[in-house]
Design brief:
7 helices
Length: 199
């Protein structure tokens, strides 16, 4: 093995964790970009309304009919607000990943190596990214697909089912927002780490 080949191999080993980390980021970004969203799944979602038709309901329910309707509307607004948060975060994450990749390349070009502590940090972040990907994937189909399935069923008779669907969808959106927020924080931390090392 030549001296040049040996140096190239050492440089590659010295940045392996960075390479693995950036691949995981790419994979997570793809998952986040392909989540079902309001524009693709249900363009009339914002205008969805509960149509009230006369019906005798069981008086044992903890919530009144009016309270359930208000809760459905509140959950709809919550889902839309969370979607807006995600829509705002996606391009920022995309830009931050591009910045990180440029920093990784600069790190390599300068012949820098990562420390054992930094390797451990990158591995821990990589494990978090794996978990985030699993959590986000688990929400696909639980939001707008389920809400789209309610079309034509907005009657008082179906109010409990509607409420359950909106509650599940809102919970799934909360998971998405938490995951995307954490992913952004991880990217920022690694960008900061690289910036310090590059100087």
């Amino acid at each position: 093995m030549t001296l040049v080949a040996s140096a190239a191999l050492l440089a590659s080993c010295a940045t392996t964790e960075l390479n693995i980390f950036t691949r995981k980021l790419d994979s997570n970004q793809t998952t986040i970009q392909t989540m079902d969203n309001a524009q693709e799944e249900n363009p009339s979602f914002e205008n969805a309304q509960v149509r009230i038709t006369p019906l005798s309901l069981n008086g044992d329910d903890a919530l009144t009919v009016g309270e359930k309707i208000d809760l459905v509307i509140s959950l709809r607004d919550s889902i839309l607000a969370k979607q807006a948060t995600l829509d705002e975060a996606k391009p920022i994450i995309k830009e931050d990943i591009a910045t990180l990749k440029a920093a990784v390349q600069q790190f390599k070009d300068l012949g820098l190596t990562i420390t054992e502590e930094e390797k451990a940090t990158l591995r821990a972040f990589g494990a978090e990214l794996d978990a985030i990907k699993v959590e986000v994937r688990a929400t696909v189909g639980l939001v707008y697909k389920k809400l789209a399935e309610l079309r034509g069923q907005y009657t008082l008779e179906n109010l409990d089912m509607i409420l359950d669907t909106y509650q599940a969808a809102d919970e799934a959106m909360s998971v998405r927002v938490t995951c995307v927020t954490r992913m952004g924080a991880i990217i920022d931390e690694v960008n900061d780490l690289l910036a310090v090392r590059i100087g």
